[in-house]
Amino acid sequence: MIMPLPRLFKTSAVVLVLAPLISGAWAASLPKPVAQALRSAGIPLSSVSAVVQEVGAARASLVFNEREPRNPASVMKLVTTDAALELLGPAYRWKTEVYLDGENVVIKGYGDPKLSYQSFWLLLRNLRGRGVTEIRGDVLLDRSYFAPVPDVPFDGEAYRTYNVPPDALLVNFRSLRFSFMPEDANVRVYVEPALPGLEVMNLLRLSGGACPDGRAFREILQASFESSPRPRASFTGEYPLSCGERELSVALYSPEEYVTAMLRQLWTEMGGTWKGIARDGAASPGAKLVYVHESEPLAEVVRDINKFSNNVMARQLFLTLAAESMGPPAQAADATRVVKQWLTLKNIQAPELVLENGSGLSRVERISAAHLAALMQAAWASPVMAEFVSSLPLVALDGTMRKRLLGERIAGSAHVKTGLLQDARAIAGYVLDRKGKRQVVVMLVNHPKALQADAAMDALLAWAYDSPTTPARPTAHPRGVSPRDP
After folding, report:
1. pLDDT at 150
2. CB-based burial of residue 384 (10 Å sphere; 0-12 exposed, 13-18 middle, 19+ buried)?
3. Neighbouring residues of 178: CB distance < 8 A, sequence distance ≥ 6
4. Residues in CB range of 60: below 8 A, 6 or more apart
5. Which of 44, 88, 140, 457 is exposed most, by the fewest CB atoms within 10 A?
6. What is the model's pLDDT at position 4?
């Protein structure tokens, strides 16, 4: 169950005074290296917001357009994960229940974000170990803990796994992982899980040249996917030998089709028999509970969400907040109310905050740099600070920051969450500066050329590492800086 909000803040009232701390900070402009990088990228200063403030300090060393509402992309996951750690507790676990109901088996989900292939195998193995060798009826999938979410692909990428909508019984992200391995003059394609009924056409040709990343890699494969009348994947392009072994994950199945295929494969491998189908349903009052599978603790799930910016897991977590606080079926609007109430009790008034799904995979989500910085200040004073901070990518070492600032002095000295959409780029995190002080750093860029903002963001992180000092307050308000409290 969700922790009562008044009790939560009774033991951490120190956070209540942190939200307005960035008032009184003044900076005539962005640091010169940051401004130069933005100019080189063709990004105007009006599209940029930034805050740098030492943890616990009464004033910031830099604020710039800090009150402007902006799309933070995946940095919005910090709001969702911090709220979850405080409200649910880092030891919170999701459960998945298995019932025997006459000749049917019922599997009831509670939103586990990481019911992986291995976890689902373990669930079925435990069912088999309890003496169930034959399923004479159907397998009923109880997904009622979450309200149905429309399957509307973001940016039209229908088969990308990050577009899988939330599901109270989400098995293995509904994903198929295709592995590509050069062998002699050919390219071997291996898929996991190799579900029955899946058709794979491999006409890839080995080639020379450099190996591209991201969308360009998918394009050279000339990959095409179909889900009807049967799941089918085709690869007909060229595969550079320099790519070595690479992977591509896609989602081709509906929830019912995916679980049916997974069940049929794993149950047969275990020596069980089943001739039915998987379909939506629920246990009757007389059904017998035979097994409860528990997920990894929330602290581990939050690390996966923030280190690797997992949108599907973040959306599952967002709805879990709603279900635990207001009861099922969980809806995004309820989760939004829970998060806003939590922020209010932390004395963070953020009228500009817009939440759609809590993951940042959205064109409408908004927050200001001022309130992101206030959140980061409050998180540092929270009882779950250690779990929250350790979930952020470590600069130059892991997660989405593993390739950034390599070989620089700041490498290994900052925990920073990144955000990336076609027209939005963001960072937010903590920098341990060269004097041993901890700096909160936030930078948001919304512009058609936002993808070119990495150099400017890296420059701001480096500037924060060099231990900025809080400037004296000028008599005139610099352009781009608001004199009002956030």
Report:
1. 84
2. buried
3. 189, 190, 191, 200, 233, 235, 247, 248, 249, 250
4. 21, 22, 24, 25, 51, 52, 53, 54, 373, 470
5. 44
6. 52
Supply the pLDDT for residue 227.
85
Alpha-carbon span 80 to 336, nearest angstrom: 10
Burial 98-108 (b: 16+ CB within 10 A, else e): bbbbeebbbbb
The SS3 call for residue 62 is: strand
CB 404 within 8 A of CB 396: yes
| Dist CA 452 CA 424 (whole Å) | 10
Query: Is domain 5-91+299-465 given the CATH code 3.40.50.10610 in the classification?
Result: no
Q: If we measure between CA atoms, which residue out of 424, 478, 417, 469 comes closest to residue 446?
A: 424
Alpha carbon 183 to chain centroid distance?
35
> What local confidence, expressed as pLDDT, does residue 62 receive?
96
Cβ 135 vs Cβ 267: under 8 Å: yes
Nearby residues of 357 by Cβ (< 8 Å), 6 or more positions away: 166, 314, 315, 318, 332, 365
Other Cβ atoms less than 10 A from the Cβ of 352: the count is: 14
pLDDT of residue 485: 32
Going from N- to C-terminal start, the domains of the chain cover 5-91+299-465, 95-171+254-296, 176-250
Distance CA 336, CA 355 (A): 6
How many other C-beta atoms can be found within 10 angstroms of the C-beta atom of residue 44?
A: 10
- Which run of H or of E encompasses 275? none
Residue 41 tokens, joined: 């990228």
How is domain 95-171+254-296 classified at the architecture level of CATH?
Answer: 3-Layer(bba) Sandwich (3.50)
Encoding tokens for residue 153?
Answer: 């692909």
**pLDDT at 213 (0 to 100):** 83
Cβ atoms of 105 and 139 closer than 8 Å:
yes
Residue 76, number of CB atoms within 10 A of its CB: 30
Alpha helix segments (H runs only) across 42-150: 77-88, 117-129
Residue (of 433, 33, 399) closest to 50 by Cα position: 33
The alpha-helical segments, DSSP class H, found in 47-134 are 77-88, 117-129
pLDDT for residue 29: 79
Establish how many alpha carbons lie within 13 A of residue 56's alpha carbon, considering only the half-sphere containing its beta carbon. 6
Q: Which residue do the tokens 């002080």 mark?
A: 437
Task: State the Cα angle at 54 between 53 and 59, rounded to 5°.
Answer: 60
> Cα–Cα distance between 437 and 385 in angstroms, integer?
16
Sheet with 104-109, side-by-side order of all strands: 278-280, 139-142, 104-109, 95-101, 288-294
> Which pLDDT score is estimated for 404?
95
Q: Please give the model's pTM, rounded to 2 decimal places.
A: 0.89
In 3-state terms the chain splits into helix, strand, coil percentages (rounded to 5) of 35, 25, 40
